[in-house]
Amino acid sequence: MTQAIAGLSVTRAGPLALLQDAGRFGVRRLGVTQGGPVDLHGWAWANHLVGNAWGTPALEVTFGGLELVAERDLVVAVAGADLSATLDGEPLAGWRSFTVKAGQRLAFAAPANGLRAYLAVAGGFAAVPVLGSVACVVREGLGGHDGRGHRLAEGDVLRVMPRRAATGREAPREAQVDYRRPAELSLLPGAQVGEFSGESLFQAFNAPWRVDDRADRMGVRLTGPRLDCRMASMISEGIGLGAVQVPPDGQPIALLNDRQTIGGYPRLGALTPLACSRLAQCLPGQEVRLKAVTTEQALAAYRGFRAGFA
C-alpha cells in the first residue's frame, strides 16, 4: 500500500489556503457544516487533469500569496482562477497538468482573473479525515492538512500519495471560465418566494446585482434594489447550499459551503451548485444577475457536469 510522503513545503502562506475534498456530509444534524470547495467546477477540473477520482483532496488558494517548494518530483494541475502562478519565476498557464521537479518553487501572486485557484497533485494530498472528510472549515476547527481546521502556515509540509500521471493534459476551452465576465446565476425559487412583493420579484430577476466586499466561504452579500418581504418573522429552518436569504435590509445573502446549518430569514430560493461555484470566483464590485430555473433544468445541468468526471 502506498504511504503518504512529504510532497510540498510552505515557504509563504498567503491569506487563505485550505485543503478541501468534496465536503463533509451527513452531519448537519450535529450543527456541523459541509465545507468543501466553494468552486466545485475549478476543484473538479484540477483533480481530473491529474487523473484523480472525484473527492480527492486538493488545495484551495484564495487571493494568492502562497509559495510552495517541491520535496520530490510531482505531477500537478492548476485550475480555477488565474492567480498569476509561476514555477521558478516563469509564468504558468492554468487549466492543465505539468511536472514540478524536486526543489522547484511554485508561487501564486495576485488575482488576475477570478479569486480562487485549485492545486491538485496526482494521487492526492493526504490528511486524516474528521467526521468522514478532510474538508477544512476554519470556524469549526475541523479537517484540513492537520485535522484541526487550520489554514496553511509557513513551515507546514503537505503530504501526498504520489502516483504517476500524464502531463500536458488541458481542460477544453469551454470549461476554462473567464471570471471577469458578468455572471448569470441560476436560482431555484424557494418556499417563501411568494411572500415577496411583485415589484421585488421583478427587480430580483431583472436588475443587476453587485458582489459586496462582505464575502467569504460562508456567504456572499449582494447589493442592489431593496427586496421587500411580507413575512415579519419565521421559525428557523435548515439551510442548504446556495440558499439566498433576505434579511430586513432587503439585500440578499447567498450562503456557501461554510454557512450556518439553520437560519430564520425568508429565502428567495437557492442557487444551483454550479451557480455557487461561479459566484465564489467573483471579486467585490463585480456584476451578477439572477436567473430563475426549474428543478429539471438544474438537475440536467448538474448531471451533465458530473458525467464528465465519472
Topology:
Blueprint: E1 5-12, E2 16-20, H1 40-49, E3 58-62, E4 67-70, E5 74-82, E6 86-87, E7 90-91, E8 96-100, E9 105-107, E10 113-121, E11 125-126, E12 157-160, E13 183-189, H2 198-206, E14 209-215, E15 219-223, E16 237-238, E17 243-245, E18 253-255, E19 262-263, E20 267-271, H3 273-279, E21 287-292, H4 295-307
Descriptors for this entry?
seven-stranded mixed barrel; PxpC; seven-stranded antiparallel β-sheet; nucleotide-binding; ATP-binding; single chain; globular; 2 domains; Cyclophilin; ATP binding; hydrolase activity; mainly beta
> Count of DSSP helices?
4
Number of domains: 2
What is Rg? 20 Å
Beta-strand percentage range: 25-35%
How helix-rich are the residues, as a percent range?
Answer: 10-25%
Sheet with the most strands?
A: 7 strands, antiparallel
Q: List the strand order in the largest sheet.
A: 7-6-9-4-1-12-11
Q: Structural class, judged by helices and strands?
A: mainly beta
Q: What's the pLDDT, averaged over the residues?
A: 96
Tell me the overall shape. Answer: globular
Cα(first) to Cα(last) distance is 24 Å
What's the total count of β strands?
A: 21
Order of helices and strands: EEHEEEEEEEEEEEHEEEEEEEHEH
Low-confidence stretches: none
Overview of this protein structure:
- The structure is a single chain.
- The protein is mainly β and 310 residues long.
- The protein has four helices and 21 strands.
- The strands form four sheets. A seven-stranded antiparallel beta sheet has the order 7-6-9-4-1-12-11, with no helix packed on it. A seven-stranded mixed barrel has the order 13-20-17-18-15-14-21. A five-stranded antiparallel beta sheet has the order 2-3-10-5-8.
- 45% of the residues are buried.
